[in-house]
Specification:
The protein is α+β, with helices and mostly antiparallel strands. The chain is 11% helix and 25% strand. Strands 4, 5, 6, 9, 10 and 11 form a six-stranded antiparallel sheet that branches.
Length: 554
């Protein structure tokens, strides 16, 4: 063998031996290891001794890469806690939470620590375990799950009765009673409060959170001359002649200047007053008291979940004015018609809670894309608003799930217990973020519409309908009013986002439907700058607070 070739072979052997020595032995394994090569080094699931509704479960675990190659977590879910909840009746419900380390690259021998907590907001059986996703495969640690049984509030045990001394033996005289000071008369019972119910004490974790909350606002006195409306006749149900209330709650909402807006019709701007100025949609809520359950509701929806504009132009990622992302405008569109527009009949699936019509639907109406398929028609001259849910054209005409007609000059609500084209029984159009307001008015003179994932079986006026079968004091009710905190700095946001945030400070937003958390609804328009709307994600749930606008109705 030639000398140069032998020299090369010797050097190659030395390099290989040196690499093996530097790499060292494979990491020692102490805990369970997944097929992807991740070792569960430590796992701790802290549960209260007797978990009850409102307690918090804390999960901590550590994962270590025991392979010789890097491991990259899935960019959409990363590492999280697998959770399942099952009530007394029904199938298990997915309640995964705490998504972290999305797209994280874990080197050989490197470890990551995970911590998160979950509020037990539903009674039933809960299960928790470490989880992750790598290369399309889920982490197989569900065999280490912790099962927790959550009970409702349990009443405290009754006080023990005072024991009486035993009688004296037969033949012995009964001892004379000792002279004692007469006991003072018992204090009079406290006056019964309105809607007073017997409740057990709150769990320690929930009581600690609510300890520093301000007291509930006092009951506001009605204005002079107000007369309480007569209750409906006994036995009357929602339907023809069902009870309809005014949207204006005495002592809560006062006359303002909101609702004066513009709409676009055939390239022209038309002035419009959407509901009277004292309507809840048009009220300044910046000075209303904070709701006593504000922290509780915000935590349930998501303290660190971002605000999201569920509308836009579809033209994003602009560089020197050129959009790198080109798509269609998205949101909830609306149609404007004038006097004399033909009306068509509509068949409803939920006819008992729908206004029969007919409806002035254009020949080719603008309709929301997606699951709800809303159609909104504004009759400008008649000052009427027509809204449909799950609308579709058939061979014999139009069909819809439900429909509602609103008089824009009146404060009357839907009958109590009725839905509309929206889950909460509210109109959709008044709560939309519209481009013509932002561009031509420079402000938004009304409250906005938003959604959350989980609601309770209750509503606050002006909402008239709930959309949940679960009654939980930790979940928000329909009609909940939320505003941006007054000290939040909006000066660093671009113009379109800043106008929306200033509106949230003054008018707030109203919970109207079940959907993604903190999603704000708006109308599509090619004039929206999606990059500016994207900055709204800098606003988190902790930057918001709930406003007290009345008690929830169950």
């Amino acid at each position: 063998m030639p000398y140069p070739m032998a020299k090369r072979i010797v050097w190659l052997a030395v390099v290989l031996l040196l690499g093996i020595c530097l790499a060292g032995p494979p990491p020692a394994v102490a805990g369970p290891v997944s097929p992807q090569g991740l070792e569960l080094v430590e796992l701790s699931i802290v549960v209260p001794p007797h978990p009850r509704l409102g307690d918090v479960v804390e999960i901590f675990f550590t994962l270590k890469n025991v392979t010789q190659k890097p491991i990259r977590f899935d960019p959409s879910v990363g590492v999280f806690v697998g959770a399942r909840w099952q009530g007394s009746h029904g199938k298990p419900v997915n309640r995964d939470f705490g998504y972290q380390y999305k797209g994280w690259r874990l080197l050989p021998g490197q470890s990551i620590s995970f911590y998160s907590g979950q509020l037990l907001d539903m009674p039933g059986t809960w299960s928790f375990w470490p989880a992750y996703k790598v290369n399309g495969q889920w982490g197989p640690f569900d065999n280490l799950k912790k099962v927790v049984r959550v009970d409702r509030y349990t009443p405290p045990p009754p006080p023990a009765k005072a024991s009486t001394p035993p009688p004296p033996p037969a033949g012995q005289p009964t001892p004379a009673p000792k002279a004692t000071r007469p006991s003072p008369p018992p204090p009079p019972p406290p006056p019964a409060k309105r809607d007073q119910t017997s409740r057990a004490p709150l769990p320690p974790a929930l009581a600690k959170r609510l300890k520093n909350l301000p007291p509930p606002p006092p009951r506001l006195a009605p204005p002079p001359g107000y007369k309480k409306p007569a209750p409906p006749p006994a036995g009357r149900k929602a339907g023809a002649g069902a009870r309809r209330l005014s949207a204006v709650t005495p002592g809560i909402y006062r006359r303002g200047d909101g609702g004066r807006t513009v709409v676009e019709y055939q390239g022209k701007l038309l002035p419009l007053q959407v509901f009277p100025p004292d309507n809840p949609w048009n009220q300044d809520v910046s000075q209303l008291p904070r709701h006593p359950k504000s922290d509780q509701y915000i935590a349930n929806i998501g303290r660190f979940t971002s605000l999201h504009a569920d509308f836009g132009s579809g033209q994003g990622w602009k560089v020197m004015g050129v959009a790198l992302k080109r798509g269609e405008a998205y949101g909830i569109p609306y149609n404007v018609v004038r006097a004399g527009h033909p009306r068509v009949p509509v068949r409803f699936k939920y006819a008992s809670q729908s206004d029969p019509g007919p409806y002035p639907i254009p020949e080719n109406p603008k309709q929301e894309k997606g699951g709800d398929r809303h159609i909104i028609v504004l009759d400008y001259d008649a000052k009427k608003l027509y809204e449909l849910f799950l609308a579709r054209r058939t061979g014999s005409g139009w069909e819809a799930g439900s429909g509602a007609i609103f008089d824009l000059t009146s404060n009357l609500l839907r009958p109590l217990g009725w839905t509309s084209a929206d889950a909460a029984g509210l109109p959709i159009f008044p709560g939309l973020v519209r481009y013509e307001e932002v561009k031509h008015l420079g402000r938004i003179p009304h409250a906005l519409r938003f959604t959350v994932r989980k609601t309770t079986k209750a509503y606050i006026l002006p909402a008239t309908h709930w959309a949940s079968d679960v009654r939980s004091e930790l979940r928000p009710p329909m009609g909940l009013r939320v505003r941006l905190k007054a000290d939040f700095d909006t000066g660093t946001f671009p113009p379109q986002a800043r106008i929306i945030l200033e509106c949230l400070k003054k008018y707030g937003m109203i919970l109207a439907d079940n959907g993604a958390n903190w999603f704000i609804s708006g109308a599509p328009n090619p004039g929206w700058d999606d990059d500016q709307l994207l900055t709204l994600r800098r606003v988190k749930g902790k930057d918001l607070e709930v406003v007290y606008t009345g008690e929830a109705r169950h």
